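Most newcomers find our protein records easier to grasp once they have seen one. Sequence and backbone structure share a record, each on its own labelled line. To make this concrete, we reproduce a full record directly below:
***
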Amino acid sequence: MVTRLRGRAAVGGLVIVPALILSLAGCTGSSGQPSPAGSPVATERSAAVGTSAASVCTGPEAKTAISRFFDAWNHRNAAALGRLFTADGVLDMATKHQDTLHGHDWASVGGLGARRMIAAFAERQWRLGEKLSYRDGGGRDVVARFADGTVQPMEETKFIYDCARQGFAHVVIISAKAAGPA
């Protein structure tokens, strides 16, 4: 199911957080401040916490998973993309015409049956020719590019990787503005 969420989005750059560390440190934006406790993003993050100490993974494992996310997205591999998420994972992502900072909305897909729903959402985006580019293996400076030549810079990109379940519990890719001329 794809729904539109409305709410105040946290502003910032990239955050890679193994689920265990999430409960200790929280996620921060570019200002170094945690996302507002009542924000939908912070609420979803809180739900991802609760793994055992045995689930701690390394930074390289998380970066590899992030690279696989972008590879699956840009190669339009719906099955591989779906497998990167936990069975109840969530993808919050701005679509081409959404301006998260000003419109405070984005598409959200996930929950039970998440892998299939995330793959279906991605296929709809791919029909628009969407490709994601990023600066490094950690997913920094993400930009969506569309077949019609428009681009959409992303304001915030977060990957919450559940080490115990070997998948993303939550991925957030929200926009700085709607897509427009390059």
Q: What stands out?
A: The radius of gyration is 15 Å. Residues 7 and 65 are 28 Å apart (CA to CA). The longest helix spans residues 59-74. Residues 1-54 have pLDDT under 50 and may be disordered.
